[in-house]
Automatic annotation (TrEMBL):
A family per Pfam: oligo_HPY
Keyword list, A-Z: ATP-binding, Nucleotide-binding, Transport
Entry-linked PROSITE patterns: ABC_TRANSPORTER_1, ABC_TRANSPORTER_2
InterPro entries: AAA+_ATPase, ABC_transporter-like_ATP-bd, ABC_transporter-like_CS, Oligopep_ABC_C, P-loop_NTPase
GO molecular function: ATP binding
Annotated TM spans: none
Protein source organism: Microbispora bryophytorum subsp. camponoti
Span of domain ABC transporter: 2-256
Protein name in the entry: ABC transporter ATP-binding protein
Domain of life of the native organism: Bacteria
SUPFAM superfamilies found in the cross-reference section: P-loop containing nucleoside triphosphate hydrolases (SSF52540)
Record bears the keyword Nucleotide-binding: yes
Family matches, as Gene3D superfamilies: P-loop containing nucleotide triphosphate hydrolases
Length: 342
């Protein structure tokens, strides 16, 4: 079990005509990934998803807040004593090509972490060779074909499976999948998602899934939780199906309404929510408009004077089944953006 409380991170960006500026990437994020569970974070580009994934995997530190692994607060440990805990959390990047050394065969890529694991667990050296084949089989690859090859000799989907196999060498308890299928050919994506789902079931590994795509979040964990993140703040959180079928925060509604559908197949609805702008950077720039108010106020069609003055926090006000950070939570029909069949 891994959890985060009040995770906050601000980056200082240099350069540009305005000189240095502070970019709040995460603003007090709370989360919990139960053992064997699936939690998805969804939001537009720049909302802080990758930063959160890196903090959870121990690759980045937060400015304030606490990460706890199996109820042990990471801040209470020295850097060295933290490492065995963070080893239980493995990050799977979106780009499987850059994650693998192009000058090493897959056998070599797996041999190093397996040699370490062999020493840690006191197993005989011969165990590592057998384990490499076992792990490749587990992720749906033929070891005889894959082991002697270099990354460029494999397809994107196969490379991502190798990256997942390498993550499994240390027997992790949590996989953090950051846009794990976004750089893979569309035809191969479903296979990788099915694999992550299968690993959850077979190995009991938890998955923290980071995506901008509602459909993949739904696929990975229909029994899990969905966190909708906007400019570093969680604005809606609840069971995946509840949040997707009955979103109450206008941002979630806008995010869902931005899903294109073919003419004639739109969801029925009577109230249109403004689609989300493509650029997260643009919304960051808009932050000056309501410095103390709701982060979404400047783009929200339902804002009131209170929203511009006060920032809502995550809670269940209004009797909704899911948590939300909105003064006007309401189920509104989401009308997907129609696109032409041609
Ligand atoms: N190392 C860094 N230095 C400065 N700013 C950063 C750094 N990493 C992230 N940021 C900024 O923090 C904000 C959140 O970035 P992050 O990559 O976490 O978002 P994201 O939701 O994962 O976006 P994307 O889907 O485009 O990767 C962005 O405004 C980004 O420009």
């Amino acid at each position: 079990m891994i959890s985060g409380t009040g995770i906050t991170k601000t980056f200082r960006q240099r350069g540009g005509v305005l000189g240095a500026r502070e970019v709040p990437a995460l603003r007090g994020v709370d989360f919990a990934v139960p053992k064997g569970g699936a939690v998805s974070f969804i939001g537009e580009s720049g909302c802080g998803k990758t930063t959160l994934g890196r903090i959870v995997a121990g690759l980045e530190t937060c400015d304030s807040g606490e990460i706890a692994i199996d109820d042990v607060a990471m801040s209470s440990l020295s850097h060295r004593r933290r490492q065995p805990y963070f080893r239980r959390v493995q990050l799977i990047h979106q780009d499987p090509y850059s994650a693998l050394n192009p000058t090493r065969t897959i056998h070599q890529a797996l041999a190093a972490p397996l040699a370490l694991r062999t020493r840690q667990t006191g197993r005989p050296r011969s165990w590592a060779d057998g384990r490499a084949g076992e792990l490749l089989g587990l992720v749906g690859l033929d070891p005889g074909y894959v082991l002697p090859r270099y990354p460029h000799q494999l397809s994107g989907g196969m490379r991502q499976r190798v990256v997942i196999a390498r993550a499994l060498t240390v027997d992790p308890e949590v996989l953090v999948a950051d846009e794990a299928v976004s750089m893979i050919d569309v035809s191969l994506r479903l296979g990788i998602l099915a694999l992550l789902k299968d690993l959850r079931e077979r190995l009991g590994v938890s998955v923290l899934f980071i995506t901008h795509d509602v459909a993949t979040a739904r696929y990975i964990g229909t029994d899990g939780e969905l966190y909708v993140i906007y400019r570093g703040q969680v604005v809606e959180r609840g069971p995946v199906e509840t949040v997707i079928s009955a979103p109450v925060h206008p941002y979630t509604q806008a995010l869902l309404s931005a899903i294109p559908v073919l003419h004639g197949l739109e969801s029925p609805g009577d109230q249109r929510v403004v689609p989300v702008e493509a650029s997260g950077e643009a919304s960051v720039e808009a932050s000056g408009e309501h410095p103390d108010g709701c982060l979404f106020a400047s783009r929200c069609p339902f804002r009131t004077e209170r929203c511009e003055r006060e920032r809502p926090t995550l809670g269940r006000d209004g009797g909704t089944p899911q948590e939300h950070a909105c003064f006007h939570p309401e189920r509104r029909s989401v009308v997907a953006v129609p696109v032409s069949r041609r």
